[in-house]
Amino acid sequence: MLMTVIVVLSGFFGRYIYTSIPRTADGAEIEVIDIQNEIAMADNELKHWERTHSNEVKGDGRVSPRKRLDPAERAQLKYIKQLTKRRDQLRRQVASLAMTRRLFALWHAVHIPVGLTLFIAAFIHILGAIYYATLLH
Q: What is the pTM of this model?
C-alpha cells in the first residue's frame, strides 16, 4: 500500500513538472533555440517600433504624456506592451527550462522503477493469494 501511495504522489509531482515544460499546440516540446528565436523576433519588433517612434518615447521606454494618442496609436501601444510582456515571459521560460528538464529526467528515473516494482509486487501478491486460497485446498 505504501508503494501505491508513493507512486500516486510521485505521479502528481511528475504531472506538475510535465506541464511546466513549454509545448507547441500539438504537444511537442519546444526547444530553447525556438524560444530564443521568438525572443529575438520580439526584440527586433520592439527596436523597430522605438526607432520609428523615437520622438514619442522617453528614455525609460514610456510614451510621452504630452502627445494625445489616437485609437490606432493606442492599439499599437497596447500591442507593444503585450509584446514586451510576452518577451519577458519567454526569457523566464528559457531560464527555467534546463532545470525543469533535469528535474523531469530525475523524476522519470525514480517514478518508473518504483511503479514497475509496485506492479511486480502486486502481480506476485495476486499469484500468492490464488495459490494459497485455491490450490492448497
A: 0.53
Q: Are 97 and 83 in contact (CB under 8 A)?
A: no
Q: How far is CA 132 from the centre of its chain?
A: 49
Q: Are 131 and 27 in contact (CB under 8 A)?
A: no
Residue ranges covered by each domain of the chain = 2-135
Sign of CA dihedral 46, 51, 53, 59: positive
Per-position DSSP letters for 54-107, written without gaps between them: TTTB-TTSPBPTTSPPPHHHHHHHHHHHHHHHHHHHHHHHHHHHHHHHHHHHHH
Q: For residue 29, what is the DSSP state?
A: B
One-letter amino acid of 108:
H
Alpha-carbon span 80 to 73, nearest angstrom: 10
User: Which pLDDT tens digit goes with each residue over 27-68?
Assistant: 666 777 878 888 888 888 888 877 777 665 555 555 555 567
